Amino acid sequence: MSSAPKPDVTPRGRLRGRRIAVTGAASGIGRATARLFSQEGASLALLDRDPAGLKEIANETDGARFEVDITAEDEVASAAERAATALGGIDGVVNAAGIMYRGRATDVPATNWRQVLEVNLTGTYIVTRSFLPWLTSESAASVVNIASAQGLLPNTPGYSAYAASKGGIIALTKALAAELAPQIRVNCISPGMVNTAMADGHRDGASNYALKRIADPNEIATALLFLTSTDASYVTGSVLGVDGGRAFH
Ligand SMILES: NC(=O)c1ccc[n+]([C@@H]2O[C@H](COP(=O)([O-])OP(=O)(O)OC[C@H]3O[C@@H](n4cnc5c(N)ncnc54)[C@H](O)[C@@H]3O)[C@@H](O)[C@H]2O)c1
Question: What pTM was estimated for this model as a whole?
């Protein structure tokens, strides 16, 4: 694997005064995103089901933390209300919580199938819907979801449930972009493999990527920053591939 060039994360105040909710903030991409967004001036509401990781990133970013399971409607609705109160409003949501499941369709027990769909797709929907009352009252609001190259180009055997959940996120993103315009922009990114806990045991899998390496989480966070910030003020309903050239589209 060739070494990753570092993205320039010199703070430029691109989220100054913005109040952003980030799910999955305890680990990996969500954590890198919380750190970058904080450096860019955002105040943060951090949601995750992992209390230890959540506490660390909340301390580091001075964010408000909410220990929730994103599939639990009531918990999420309560967290959204408390987050909006704590931050004085919400301008954006980044849906980074998710789980992986590896297994061919013929081998995936229905329970696991349902769980992957429930967390990745329904969880993204529940979080977004719960924050809508605040997003609609703000200008330049943004929602960014995380799909996957497995959702955009699901040609690797062994990812059926995960690919279905991520393909669903791509469709949900476009449907919401249509429904929530013009007040709220809704976009998603489609990462290839990223160097987080989710890639454990699979980090050598980038040989078919044009860039021949997996991504650093900061390289995903910078894409989420672009779509969340007003730099992307004319971008909605889009799927931004951030996959080192795994899928050209
Ligand atoms: N790592 C990759 O290779 C990769 C590639 C493409 C897409 N993604 C997507 O990026 C997102 C972030 O993944 P990551 O690599 O940072 O993984 P990660 O495992 O490091 O982090 C995921 C976070 O989501 C949280 N989470 C999971 N289920 C939850 C639930 N029900 N309620 C609340 N929190 C929950 C976990 O506690 C964890 O903190 C996921 O949607 C993943 O599918 C990852």
Answer: 0.97
